[in-house]
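Just curious: can you write a single protein's sequence together with how it folds?
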Amino acid sequence: MIYINGRFLSQRSTGVQRFSLQLLIAFDLYLDEINDLTEYTLLCPCNAIPPVLKRIKLKYVGWKIKGHLWEQLVLPFWSSFSILLNFSGAAPLFKIKQFITIHDSALYEHPSAYTALFRLWYKFCFSILKRTSIKIFTVSNFSKERLAYFLKIEEGKVKVLYNACDHMTSLVSDDSILYKFNLKPRTYSLAVGSLNPTKNISKLIEAMEFVNLPIVIAGGGNSGVFSQVDLNSNENTKIIYTGYITDEMLKSLYENALFFVFPSIYEGFGIPPLEAMSCGCPVVASNSAAIPEVCGDAALYFDPLQPNAIARTMNELSYNNQLREQLILSGNERVKQFKWSNTARMLHCELNN
């Protein structure tokens, strides 16, 4: 019997929750495909919204208890001495026989990006979990090396399960977002914004002083986790903030943007550039952290700390049709390497090793 921590299904969707959900769905399909006889059960708090699964059983436990309390008390009780699989960072501290997933080392490398309470809790958690877990999963070789360094553990204990982007193919584009903001195809660039300072939206806004093409910044953030960054403090009329939007709306923005901009100074992986590539949108991106590992030769890179460099790269792609076409073709090839079915197969191999 193997249990899966389903707390992420009760949380607001970010990159971590997206990874967890898509891997859960792909893993369920893979188990059905290979006819694995091992019994898997997804344990969920009362406020979780799980997907429809074929092979993995579903069980709500803990009555009305939820959040950290559910994860630290209810989850280890119900999983008892069986193996527990955690996809999204947090895990019960006093549970033996479990696999955990830590998506990056930003907590150690950019501590000021997080609230004091968040830093304190997760550093405490990781100091215990690094000793008690069977293996630690992460999402890139960059994160593997950095986690091994900061947690002071052997790299062999950390295994890479890549993110993927083929979840975009099943989405139906919602063009209402274009009508709402009066956007026409290929008349804007696109970025995904967040309150997390490591997303570096402030430098992108500075760069827009030297870029003529308008930019759409989509998304929001979690003020309970990230230090405050005011995305609305700038009055540049070339910048359009959408706030939170659905995945279907985001797909429409990807498909109709002239190009996608990813200015992060730190990413353990970075799904948005791959999502853009999968939608036929060329990418300009930061040359920091795991981003070059993920994007390879399918992106045009810049120094994320230099607004002039960001602007110069954006302007180059704005006026170079041939370069955009080249990046679209390279992106189409790049995304073939990142499929959830591959990640599910890697997960199954690690569990059986």
In short: Residues 222-231 have pLDDT under 50 and may be disordered. The chain has two domains: 2-164+339-352, 166-337. The radius of gyration is 20 Å. Residues 15-34 form the longest helix (20 residues).
